[in-house]
Amino acid sequence: MEKKSAFSELVIGLLILALGIFVFCYGFTLKTAKTGIGAGGYPKFIGVVLIILGICQTAVSLFQGVRKPELKADRTKVIRLVALVGAMVVYLWLLPHIGFVIMTPILIIALMLLFGIRRWLLGLVIAIVFTIIVYLLFTRVFMVFLPGFTLF
Amino acid sequence: MFEYIISGFASVFHPTSFILMVFGIVMGIIIGAIPGLSGSMGIILLLPLVYMLPSDVALVMLCGLFCGSMYGGSISAILLNTPGTPSAAATVLDGYPLAQKGKAGKAIGISSFASFVGGLISTLCLMFIAPELASIALNFQAADYFSLAIFGLTIMASASGGSMVKALIAGAVGLLLSAVGMDPITGNPRFTFGSYKLMSGLDILPILIGVFALSEVMVKVNSKNKGLTFDEKKIEKVVPTFSEVRSVLKVAIVGGIIGVLIGIIPGTGGAIACFLAYNVAKKISRNGSKFGTGEYEGVAAPEAANNGTTGGALIPMLALGIPGDVVTSVMLGALVLVGVRPGPMLFVESPDLVYTIFSGMFVIQFLMLGFGFLFARISPKILKIPANILMPIIVVLCMVGAFSIGNQTYHIWVAVIFGVVGYLMKKYGFPGAPLILGVILGPIAEENLNRALIVSGNNVSVFFTRPISLAFLLLSAFSVGLTVYNRVKKDRKEA
Fold first, then answer.
1. Longest dimension (CA), chain B
2. What is the pTM of this model?
């Protein structure tokens, strides 16, 4: 069977090539120096490296032949992943307003459910106890002042 | 040197250092034993603590965790037929058959002893080789350092497995990330796009948390929890007898030496060393033909080798600032956080710190032997911790760790973004270690590239006329060329 590379491999190559061109051009907008590399020299160097690697990646995928893009994705897997990242984003968004002590057990329970916990009462106890331990450890011992409730 | 060794042991036996070193070992064994968690994740989870500690205490704790995780991987390999870490992959071959024969306790005992032998050999090599290598590196000039940084990146890309182009892309993106913020030469903002938060650059800690820890949780959300368990009543005798120790000593010593040699090569690590040692042991053992059916030597060789890599991997990290494997690259990031910049100057400026590490590594091996025997009986309980409880806890620890850098949620946002980046990297076959190495080596590469060009009056030939620099560049080209050649050869064979 002929070994073909995935369509994504070609896309990755082209994206790296585009990034390399952007970084290389960006280097020209920065100050140059008479001797040494100046502010722009290093980005130009990285840009050239990325361009070469982008061309290599594109060439390898084209040389091997590109399979047709597969648009089918496992919906359940995508939903679970989006839910995980979404839970973290919502947590981060609300954390400065609602505070660590309230938001963290909610996040832990949400993630436990996402990871398929069945003994939810045990999960609830672990979430609350763990939050209290982390809060006390960080605020009292490590002197890291975790966000508090600031809505009123 | 002698007074530094004495002061090193005094630091290690200071109550705080000792307790945290034991804590590091225990955490390492637990983390290593749980399949899917690795030493690098363990270091990331301990970062908030590392941040608060004096550098010598933090270092011995991290060394304890590093060695503990290497050994811990063998527990699940023996009991569950699933290696806790890639470094214990070869231990499965004879460890699990031994467990099936009812000798799980003995297999763990042999694994503890072999880890002790491998670790001790690697510590002795670390004590004697690292200072010599550092004294050679003291003669390095700017051009040599730049070429060394390029060598570190290419060798890690070559050894990381999978596509070398992708590994090099990861390294180049790491260099790019290191360029974000104020330019160190002229003070101009670069890649900040008007954001004042990016002016101080991207901190390595949130990148580490995202790429190595949060991305792993994102992978786990879609993997099925197999719920493997082992009956703890089946673990009876743990401590090996004198004759059993004598029967595995030869392969353990050979495995330890192989581990050190593999560990010294940047970018390699325990996974390669354990299989190499297993194959060598199979050839030199009188029971070689029985390997794979449950031989103690088949457990001892890979376990001595993967612990042998610990001291081996620390040699280039401490002497040159180039990590030997993934865990030491994360450790390097952690050291930078506590203000320790590994490299030859560390041996000149902070010899006490260096000898504390040496002494710590020495003491850790003895403690590991004891804890290894102790953990054999309680290990089945550790393996019962389900992913649906562990993963949410890891997420929270990652978030708190990122927050503790500057008491602001901005760093958690960066960690989450790099978590998604790390997940995509895993999905599309990009290794994470070269990216981190790029971020670490970026400032060294830029500073020395600039300095070399200033000194030489913008003459690029300086990188090719200095013998050390030329040697590193040739080695870089050789490692890339060899990897490409092997890949083409493999593809032709498959076609």
1. 73
2. 0.83
